[in-house]
Structures are given as structure tokens and as C-alpha cells.
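Morning, I've got a small favour to ask if you have a moment. Here's the protein in full, and shout if anything looks odd to you:
***
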Amino acid sequence: MDKVATVVLPLFAMIFAGFWIVRIGVIGKETVKGLVGVVFWLFLPCFIFIKTLGTRDHAALDWRLLGAYYAACLVTFMIAALGGWKIWGGGARVACLRGLSSISGVVGYMGLPLMVMAFGDEATLPTVMITMADNLVILAGGAFIMEMTAQRRDETRPSMLSVVKSTSKAIMTNPLILAVALAVVFIFAELSLPSPLLIFATQMTNATGPLALVALGAAFAVHKSENLAKADTLALAILKVVVLPVLVFISAKYVFELSDFLVKIAVIMAALPIAVNVFILASRYKTYESEVSSSMLLSAVFGIASISLLLVVFD
């Protein structure tokens, strides 16, 4: 129970604070957009870079972690995409967004601070692995499917080459992926940051957790919530914060036989609320926006109980 009081409650209090400063009018939508942008482009890259640098003395990567995590994600994706299509209908893009909503969590804004707060810097490496893979799932997999599934007769389907180019550009310009790549270069080349840059990056890192969580709450506040009572949005939230963690546990513990520590990391990361990036993808293609938005809010509420329970069980 100690981690619920010292980790979960303060963490969700920061998210709640960000939510309410928007809802009571302290900051507006444009300010929220700027806040989220600053965290994504400046604070999180510094956090990831410094924390990844600190892993040079830790154990080697266990790539089975990604195998265990995404084997469960694949099953959950298919349940959400095919099951949702069978029950509620919708085209290929809606099915894709349902699938992504069921597996993609707020791994950067919430997952990284949460794991470090709960388990210390030792959790950085496996958490960063899942964070990078999750970003690639959205940037590469999600965007690729959305681009290749034209829904309207007057909608021109782009060529495979243009899709590959746009997707590659999005990956290569993603600041979180660039931060990891730069840290890996520093580790293998045994480089060190000059003292002024190290102080700058460390100070930015120290501020990242609270700022990212407040930004996440503010981002939740600007999303629509008129479909909270719909069965498909409720199903997506439950798939994300309940079903996926259970499947990840089975996969990590009994199929891939990971260490108890990696099982904890994988399961709690799986229980994170639905990612804001999924809504951004839905907005870009003007598909299933309100449903994704509502499922995000529901998953955030359910996530409080889910993550609290997991931390108690794993403590």
C-alpha cells in the first residue's frame, strides 16, 4: 500500500491538477497545445537521454520483453479490431483505431515517470524499450494502415513509396526516438556531455515527471466526452487497462518466462491509459474521433484502480 500513497496518488493528483486548470479556464486549448508540445519536444527527450545514459552500468537488454509485450498486444489488437467490427461495424480505419486504442498507452508522459518513481532507475531500460516500440507502432504501423485504407470514392489512395517516405520521416524526426539513438551513441562511444550541457539536461530531467503529468491531464481536459456511455468506448477502455495487462502477464510470466522484475514493468506499462497519440491519429484522418477521446478519459479513470491494484499486488 505504500506505493499507492507515495506513487499512484501523487501521480494522478498531478494529472487531475492539469485537467482542472483547463476545465476552470486557467489555461485555454492553445496553451494546452503549447504545453504538450514543449514536454514532447524538449523535456521528455532530455529525460529519456539522461535516463538511458544512466543504464550503461545496468544489465544488457532482454529483447524477450518486447516479444512478450507485443504478443499480448497482437491478440488484444485483433480482439478490438475484429470484435469491434463484428459487433459495432465501421470500416478498416475504425477497426485500426479500435485496435490501436486497445494497445497503445501513455508510455512517455505517464509510463516513464511512473516506472522511475515506483522502481527506480533500474526500470529505465525496459521502460524505454516499450516506449520506443509503442511510438513505432503508432508512427509506422498506425499511420501506414490509415494511409492505405481509403474510405471514400473521391479519396485518392497514396502510393506505397509516398507512404513509406512520410512514415520514415515521422520516425526519423521523432524526438523521443532521436533521444534514445543519441544516448546509444554516447554509451557505445563512451562519450560524456560537457558539464554545462549535463547540468541543463539533468535539470530538465528533474522537471519532466510533474510537467509531463500535468500536460497529460490538460490534454485529457480538451477532449470530448459525449460518448462515455457507449458500449464500444467502454469496451476499449476495459481492453486497454484490464484485458491487455492480464494477457501481458500470461505472456511474460508463462510463455517468455521473464524475470519477476520485467514482468512487473511489462504488466504495469500495459495498464496505462490510452495514448493521446491515438486521438491525434484519429483527428488527422477525421475518423472515430469522439469515441477515441471518450475511451481515453474512461481508461484514465479505470487506470487509477488498475495501476493501484497492480502496485499493491507486485509490492
The domain at 2-314 is CATH 1.20.1530.20 (Na+/H+ antiporter like fold). The CA atoms of residues 104 and 137 lie 8 Å apart. The chain has a mean pLDDT of 88. DSSP finds 13 helices and no strands in the chain.
